[in-house]
Amino acid sequence: MILQVASETCWHGEMTNSPLPSSEPDSTQEKIGQSRVSAEEKAEAAELLARYAEFIDAGDFEGLAELLADAELLDESGNRIAQGKAEMLALYSAMTLRHADGTPLTAHVITNVIVESAGPDELQMRSRFTVFQATDSLPLQPVVVGRYVDTLRRIDGSLRFTARVMMPQAWGDVSQHLSFDPR
Description:
Blueprint: E1 9-10, E2 13-14, H1 28-31, H2 39-58, H3 61-67, E3 72-74, E4 80-83, H4 84-95, E5 106-119, E6 122-133, E7 141-155, E8 158-171
Parallel strand pairs: 3-8
Antiparallel strand pairs: 1-2, 3-4, 5-6, 6-7, 7-8
Helix pairs in contact: 2-3, 3-4
């Protein structure tokens, strides 16, 4: 949709003094490679990311495993790390340290969410993550940043994760977050 205001042309389109959309069809979406996904589907997909962050930050690995029960977790080379509820529970329980309160003392912040169609009843969602952590001996700081590429499929009427590619890009001090050194 091209908005027209003040009869000027600027970087985002032709402008006139009417705040109403132009009657011209909008081809911008197709020009930049975005597919048509409804606002409701985008919101449902983004909520899955929020639930992921909420489960892991609460140390609720059972809830996390249920959220990822239909998925396979892959590294950026496509190697399978875990698949299904039991493997997800085992993986997160083994690799993520929980502190005295039962949580990892983290805050997963997920941003830059892009949701696109990947076929009938399937979406691809790309996002960035930053994991912050603070403990009694570790001041608040980012401990890892990276990207997720998720495949979602509608199963029994609800969107579900079917694949997640985790791509950590920079590491901080994860000595109180992970049970291993990933570097």
